[in-house]
Design a protein that fits this description.
Layout lengths: L1 H42 L2 E6 L7 H16 L4 E6 L7 H10 L4 E2 L3 H4 L18 H8 L2 H9 L5 E11 L1 E4 L14 E4 L3 H9 L3 E4 L5 H7 L4 E4 L1 H6 L8 E3 L5 E9 H5 L3 H24 L1 H10 L3 E3 L3 H22 L1 H15 L1
Parallel strand pairs: 1-2, 1-3, 6-7, 9-11
Antiparallel strand pairs: 3-10, 4-10, 5-8, 5-9
Helix pairs in contact: 2-11, 5-14, 7-13
The structure holds D-xylonic acid.
The site of D-xylonic acid has 12 residues, from loops.
Length: 352
């Protein structure tokens, strides 16, 4: 009998050991699962596909690399950034639509094509709106600029910062432009924005809206006589190879807007949201500085490459302003006089 009881006891003890060990296993499994899940999550970093239209020589791309550096460092690799330039992912409108669809996470378009998504953005392309880069910074980085960024949410977009495209200058291969009358009949490519189109019509030109990705070929083939962009773009995109004349029209200060897909942004932790916003702002300040530093140098380099540079006098600039004023009045009505007035008031305040 004793022997029988000791066998039963041994079997019972063995069963008890096995059960506890399993529990531990389960606990371990749980822990493993937990660790595994945690490891899995940390292994599966989020990826930002960031695309722009300008090439890798442009300050805009250097700004994108700065954004990548800051985000990857501050998130310890939880977020990785893939950068694409030269329209590899498409033109401004296509990439902005990709953000809305969630098939791309970041792009940095000019404000002009954004007006096709949020009409109020046209105000930033009113000719001669910003008198200087410094005033543009103050207004865009202040209350008014923030108000415009918030409008993007209705389009499934998050505006994180303003970067700089810069003051736009006209180039062409027909004639030197020194007067308002010299625009007459020029076939000029413009961005896909009604204000740009109508302003150049008011100057007597014959404008054609076109994506930036098609521009160099159109200039090369003579589909258009000219275009307008900041000196940095004219030089770094090698437009001097297909354009003869450049003049300091300074007709529009063009901002870039750093856009993120809302669906991607909403999926970030609060800490990650702060990091991407800080990174967009810090990289934007860096990009603006690079863009400005070399502007004078770019103009000299364009002339070294054989372009003729002509200056437009204050009197002729005044004539240009007079010719485009009816377009400004029309679009101020169209997009809302109040918000337009807010922008002009902010500019006046920032100019003091
Ligand atoms: C580049 C464009 C470009 C703009 C244009 O993606 O289209 O002429 O000035 O900088 O945004």
């Amino acid at each position: 009998m004793k022997k029988f009881l000791s066998v039963i006891l041994t079997v019972f003890l063995l069963l008890a050991l096995v059960a506890c060990g399993g529990g531990n296993n389960e606990a371990n499994e749980g822990a493993d699962n937990g660790d595994e899940k945690e490891n899995k999550e940390s292994v599966e970093a989020k990826t930002i596909r960031a695309g722009i239209g300008l090439n890798d020589a442009h300050p805009q791309y250097k700004g994108l690399l700065k954004f990548k550096e800051i985000v990857e460092e501050r998130t310890n690799g939880e977020i990785l950034v893939e950068t694409y330039h030269s329209g590899q992912l498409g033109d401004d409108r296509t990439m902005t639509e990709a953000l809305q669809l969630g098939s791309q996470e970041v792009t940095v378009p000019s404000t002009a094509p954004l007006a096709n998504f949020i009409p109020e953005y046209s105000v930033f392309d009113f000719p001669f709106l910003f008198p200087s880069e410094e005033v543009a910074d103050k207004v865009l980085d202040g209350e008014v600029g923030q108000k415009f960024l918030e409008k993007l949410e209705s389009q499934d977009l998050v505006g994180l910062a303003y970067w700089e495209n810069g003051f736009r200058q006209v180039t062409n291969s027909e004639r030197a432009i020194t007067t308002a009358a010299d625009f007459k009949g020029l076939k000029l490519r413009t961005m896909e924005n009604e204000v740009h189109l109508e302003a150049f019509r008011a100057l007597g030109a014959n404008p054609t809206p076109m994506a930036f990705t098609e521009l160099f070929t159109a200039l090369q083939q003579g589909t258009v006589d000219g275009q307008e962009n900041p000196y940095a773009t004219i030089y770094l995109q090698k437009f001097f190879e297909v354009q003869k004349h450049v003049s300091n029209t300074n007709h529009i200060y063009s901002p870039f807007v750093f856009l993120m897909s809302k669906s991607f942004y909403d999926g970030l932790t609060d800490e990650q949201k702060e990091i991407v916003k800080e990174a967009a702002l810090e990289a934007g300040k860096y990009e603006r500085q690079l863009n400005r530093e070399a502007n004078t140098q770019y103009l000299q380099d364009l002339q070294k490459e054989g372009m003729t540079y002509t200056e437009i006098s204050p009197e002729e600039h005044a004539k240009m302003k007079e010719l485009v004023q009816p377009v400004i009045d029309k679009y101020a009505d169209k997009i809302g006089k109040d918000i337009v007035q807010e922008v002009y008031d902010a500019i006046e305040e920032a100019s003091k």
